[in-house]
Amino acid sequence: MFDELFKNLTGLIGSKVQEAAKEFEKRLAVPEPAEPFTLIRQFTMADPTSTKGGIAIVGESWRVEAYDDNSLRLIDNEPLRKVILFEIVEPTDPECVLACRFQAKALNTEKAITVKLGLCKQRQVGTSAKAWSTSVSPTEDFHSFEIRAHFKQDTTPAKVQVIIEFESSGILEIRNIELLQAPVKLQA
Questions:
Q1: Among 5, 34, 70, 159, which residue is least crowded by beta carbons within 10 Å?
Q2: Quick check: 162 and 85 in contact, CB under 8 A?
Q3: Closest CA to 183 of 39, 27, 37
Q4: Same domain, 95 and 151
């Protein structure tokens, strides 16, 4: 009797957890664009980077470097180095799908290098940030990447950021960085 009751209770809890996980995924999902993307910003070698130091221009790409000096990090999940490559004001559309397209290659690294498209808002009690990301695995050749994000305007203005995070020493070469936007496809 108790075994059957426990089995039913376990099944009920499992199904509720699955429902909650699906709902959470839906909230984090980036909606589909209603139209093709339009270019809102293309970064060039003339654009200053937000983070200074450890960034060089090599030909038509930015070369971002990180070196592990074996110093103790206070938080284990903190990246070895975080670089805000570029930061711009939020889009004028009240709601849209943002895309960051670029070409990149990771060199001399043990772990993949993360590139993020972030939305950062300055609040009265600090900063809130939300980011979508992709990983660039070690390779000798440039590959194309795209990160999509869902932007929804509110009372606090946001900054759109292109962020690079290193988990180990390494080099990321990145080029042809574009920010694009498209209206959100309405749900039926």
A1: 70
A2: yes
A3: 37
A4: yes
Secondary structure of residue 70 in the 3-state scheme: coil
Predicted local distance difference test score (pLDDT) of residue 17 = 59
Element (H, E) at 146: strand 143-152
Look up the domain containing 40 and give its range.
Answer: 35-182
On whether both 80 and 10 belong to a single domain, the answer is no
Strand partners, 187: none
Cβ neighbours of 125 (radius 10 Å):
5
Alpha carbon 147 to its chain's center: 7
**CATH at 138:** 2.60.120.260
* Reported confidence tier of residue 13, pLDDT bands at 50, 70, 90: confident
Question: Do 174 and 96 share a structural domain?
Answer: yes
Predicted confidence (pLDDT) at residue 106 exceeds the cutoff of 90: yes
H helices of the chain, in order, are 2-28
- CA–chain centroid gap for 165, Å, is 10
Give Cβ neighbours of residue 172 (< 8 Å, ≥ 6 apart): 63, 64, 104, 105, 106, 107, 113, 115, 136, 164, 166
Tell me the pLDDT tens digit for each residue of 16-56.
Answer: 656 654 554 455 588 999 899 999 999 999 999 999 999 99
